[in-house]
Amino acid sequence: MIADSRHALSAANWRKSSYSNTQGGDCVEVADGVAGAVPVRDSKCSSGPVVIIGERAWGVFVGNLRQPS
Question: Strands 13-16 and 51-54: what pairing?
């Protein structure tokens, strides 16, 4: 976990991932503005656990999602 992440997450601006559907199904939220990391959580359980992924790893992950299969 990044230093002082609890404070950073309390003020985080969460947004639903563009890969989540609009029918209330598998919804993933990410938070912007946390230096060096991308926090990810389940929007159906916003008070639940948060996975914190390094910026570089997140970039590789998203880049792989965008590649045609």
Answer: unpaired
